[in-house]
Sequence to fold (342 residues):
Amino acid sequence: MTYHVTLIPGDGTGPELVEATRRVLEATGVSFDWDMQEAGADVMDKYGTPLPEAVLDSIRKNRVGLKGPITTPVGTGFRSVNVAIRKALDLYTNLRPAKYMQGVRSRYDDIDVVIVRENTEGLYAGIEHDVIPGEAAETIRIITRKCSERVVRFAFEYARDNNRRKVTAVHKANILKATDGLFLSVAREVAQDYPDVEFEDRIVDNMCMQLVQRPTEYDVLVTPNLYGDIVSDLCSGLVGGLGVAPGANIGDDIAVFEPVHGSAPKYAGQNKVNPTATILSGVLMLRYLGEREAADRARNAIAAVIAEGKSVTYDMKPTRDDPTVVGTKEMADAIIAAMNSA
Fold:
């Protein structure tokens, strides 16, 4: 079977990361027909927008996309392309696993947490305006039963399908009694449909503290949009940083996979940056497509290369000026070789 997948290289270091990922995915033996699409800061002059409609049309047609990082300006310029894609395609679940791999420098060596983040509403819906320009601004935060229920149900279904033991709802319902109160009450209702999966809830600030103190007590976390963005970065930090953090945006019968980190434009074209997060996002895509055996082989190869510590990029060496560092392409080569020799 050949999978038709929209491939979006992105900007900055995105194209070289996506190329490394494409090569690793093809080396698994799974057949892909890539539909290459342009998006990001680099296409603004050409299309007048960082997200041409053709990109969305391609994803709608193929139902699966793989995307490199795209630059989001701070304070000015266009809004996030990532957020725009999620909203346009109703990709209501952001899935971000945080799992330790031997050889990655981190504070812990036994973490395996999955963050399930609501992806379409809350503060990131972007309903905001100036009240007094330069003096006061206002944002409206909306939480709905529909969006809360479907993301919580996704978390429980994910837990059940992947033999996870517990789902924890993360909220601030003690203060935000209407909005987070609705999210929490819906989570409690949905939990009753899954008696085989343990359920609990945590206030978000306490959740952050507990993740630092005793992260192994947690399994699947389900959160409103903003909290998920923050908590998932925290969990990424626990296992070595955003360079090893994959991500998936999933809706009903449609999904886009992308690394969590930014585009690092200052390193563009230097064959320098770590491809792990993008390749792991491709591994998530393989699992989504039902290619679990190929996904396991790819992830095992990534883990083997990192554990050996020989053919890895500068950020994964004991010191960043280590003379044995390799580039993005060479690390992908090593992962492919590890798969072929397994």
Remarks:
- The longest helix spans residues 145-161.
